[in-house]
Amino acid sequence: MARKTTLLTLVAAALAALALVLAACGGDDSTTDSTEASGDYVTEANAICATASDELQQLAQKTGVDPQGAQLEAFYAGAEQILEKQVTGLTALEAPAGQEEQVDAYNQALEDLLVQFRKDPASVGTPEGNKIRELASAAGLEAECGNANG
Questions:
Q1: Cα-flanking dihedrals φ and ψ of residue 12, to 5°?
Q2: Which of 10, 20, 44, 95 has a CB 3.0–4.6 Å from the CB of 103, allowing a cystine?
């Protein structure tokens, strides 16, 4: 019983952390921005993040709250594809003038997270999500996109 509880806790923590990471970008609609390029970047980044968040929620619904064995492996495989698509989409966007360094740091953190997730999905947790959130904010992506719970 203790082993199942521990596994369930680890899975729940991994799912929550991954959801946090995938939702850790977005634009604050109340922010006024003088450049169209910055607005385009935020709009496009929001769309990418919203799609990833929606896809992750759908995946979690399919696998249930206590995925084990093949279900857990399927969840991790699906989550990896979602994260990879998000990273690819975000890194393809052109950073707004003056924000290249912040956007590059954010993108690098996402790429590092993807590498870590591929090695050991259960190792991705809240510290990574918090780092991504801070870097997203520095890049002008302050509100969680596609996450009504945020």
A1: -60, -40
A2: 95
Residues 87, 110: Cα–Cα separation, whole Å: 6
Domain boundaries, the chain: 2-24+35-138
DSSP string, 63-116: H-SS--THHHHHHHHHHHHHHHHHHHHHHHSPPPTT-HHHHHHHHHHHHHHHHH
* Cα-to-chain-centroid distance, residue 29: 19
pLDDT digits (tens, 9 = 90+) for 3-34: 444 444 445 555 555 555 555 554 444 444 44
Contacts of 73 (CB under 8 A, 6+ apart): none
Summarised one tens digit per residue, pLDDT across range 111-131 is 999 999 999 998 888 788 888
